[in-house]
Amino acid sequence: MSEENVEMLSVSVWRGDGEVGRYQDYEVPRQESQTVLDVVTYIQRHIDPNLSYRFACRVGVCGSCAMTVNGRPRWTCRTHVSKVVEDGKLTVAPLKNLEVIKDLSVDMTDFFDKWAKAEGSFKGDKTRHDDFAEISPTDRKRKAASAGIECIGCGVCYAACDLVAWNKDYLGPAALNRAWTLVNDVRDTNDKTRLKAVAGDAGCHACHSQQGCVESCVKHLSPTASIAGLKRATAWAALKGGLK
Amino acid sequence: MTPQTTPQMSPDDNLDIQSTHQSETILWLAQRISAMVLAVCILVHLGTIIYAVQGGLSAAEIIGRVGGSEAWLAFYVTFVLAITVHAPIGLRAILNEMTKLSRKRVDLLCFIGAVMLAYLGLKVAIRFYNLGVVS
Amino acid sequence: MKASHRNHPNYWAFVLHRVSGILLALFLPVHFQVLYLAIKKADVFDGFLHWAEMPLVKLAETVLVVLLAAHLTGGLRLLAVEFLPWRDGQKTVVALTGGASLVIGLVYLLNAA
After folding, report:
1. Which pLDDT score, from 0 to 100, does residue A4 have?
2. Which helix (H) or strand (E) is A72 found in, with range?
């Protein structure tokens, strides 16, 4: 295949850390069914080995390759170039709202710290010697939990959320979504602490339902719905006995 | 490496994080309930205006309708009080998110705003009522 | 260019709701005080009502009513999100509430303005 026949893609990639850096332009050969991750990988392997980026499974199950593509947070391995290219140009930047380590790699510490702050982990009181918990799949609470359970913690919703950008303490859609699934898990015993953790101006009450999270979630979850559920649950708890 | 302090928080904010969970929840609930009350009040208010203004509007007509009427007074007092709850809580969120004012200062400003709205609103509601009573 | 992660209807609905809320909050104290001063006596009030018949005032009133209706319908939409079971298709709801507020404005314009 001669050089002249290969269509080229103009790619602008953020280089540097979050404070000091600039966009650097590259020319990458277009290929059929090319994904943005393919493009970034090509740059690192064939043009600039200093480019830092993150990926793992590259087949759309781990969420590690999340980056900002033409302004929107996406999984780059699941984003076909043909779907997002604008006038033969592509812009790739690190996820927003997270500190940039280098180039396209961000520090996910805050994201997961907030997950813990929202009491986003299961706490039960049964042991292996106890019977199985019997929960019907059509149970209302189980359905509510199941609706949000597929989150893999990729950070795309966090990057898309305006409140995360405006309020440094806001726990964010993913952490709150996970908390809601646990609130609906009848086997969990940590409700009191959890509801208190997710209430307040750093919790569910910061959300104004703009649904940037719903728009961007690759797994089509609705953190806004979960956060609305937390608002109702915390209000109920506040009225009954207080959030102590 | 990680930012040490956040621009929106000041030292005094840290002390009361625990107790704010309850108060924030109650404020949220108060705003939603006042919103529901306002939805009804607005529809009545707008509906009345659209109905009343057809064929022109006069002072005598308005005073004739709401003056001296306990029902209308009760309506407008409810309306004003709902606004007094709803608007300041809404503005509080905006000030907290979009300005660098401390949370305590924002709370104070919104409280003052609430008092002002209540004062101005109740004043005029009572005056409308009294106009009907006197004449 | 506005970051395109904000280019979706629910974001615009949020902006409209916030802006209309601020404008209404600024309008209300003026509304209360103007009425209070105007109803000192019936003839002063009639004078005020006469002034309010000016086309520019009627236009401003209509804009205000549209803002009020937008805030109201947007607010009902939010109350539905927060209190009723979640429904997908939120974009449709945004469109409906937007349309409803224009209709209310139109009804005002045709009847009361």
Report:
1. 60
2. strand A72-75
- Residue numbers in A near C6 (CB within 8 A): 162, 212
In angstroms, the separation between the Cα of residue A88 and the nearest Cα of chain B is 36
Task: Provide the whole-model pTM.
Answer: 0.90
Chain B residues lying within 8 Å of A169, measured CB to CB: 6, 8-9
Pick the residue from chain B with its C-alpha nearest to A110.
Answer: B2
Res. A43: pLDDT tops 60: yes
**Which tokens hold the place of A172?**
């964010």
As a whole number of angstroms, the distance between CA A83 and CA A110 comes to 31
pLDDT in tens, A203-218: 999 999 999 999 999 9
**What three-state secondary structure class fits A199?**
coil
**Spans of all domains in chain A:** 3-106, 109-239
Best residue of A210, A230, A243 to probe chain B, by most B CBs closer than 10 Å: A243
CA–CA separation, B52 and B61 (whole Å): 9
pLDDT at position B3, please?
A: 45
Interface residue B133 vs chain C (CB under 8 A)? no
| Beta strands A89-93; A8-16: pairing state | parallel
pLDDT band at residue B61 under the 50/70/90 scheme: confident
Instruction: In whole angstroms, give the CA distance from residue C26 to residue A12.
Output: 44
Going from the N-terminus, what domains does chain B have, and what CATH number goes with each?
28-134 (1.20.1300.10)
C-alpha–C-alpha distance, residues B116 and A224, integer Å: 34
Token pair listed for B43? 């529809």
- Delineate the domains of chain C, giving CATH numbers in brackets: 9-112 (1.20.1300.10)
Cβ contact A161:A176 at 8 Å: no
Query: Which of B2, B6, B29 is closest, CB to CB, to A169?
Result: B6
CATH fit for domain A109-239, picks 3.40.50.10490, 1.10.1060.10, 3.40.920.10, 2.60.40.1500: 1.10.1060.10
Prediction ipTM score: 0.88
Decide if B83 contacts B70 (C-beta within 8 A): no
Q: Which two three-digit tokens encode residue A87?
A: 């006038």
With a CB cutoff of 8 Å and minimum separation 6, the contacts of C113 are C58, C59, C61, C62
- A interface test, pick of C81, C84, C88, C97 with most A CB neighbours within 10 Å: C81
Options 3.30.70.920, 3.40.50.150, 3.10.20.30, 3.90.190.20; CATH for A3-106 is 3.10.20.30
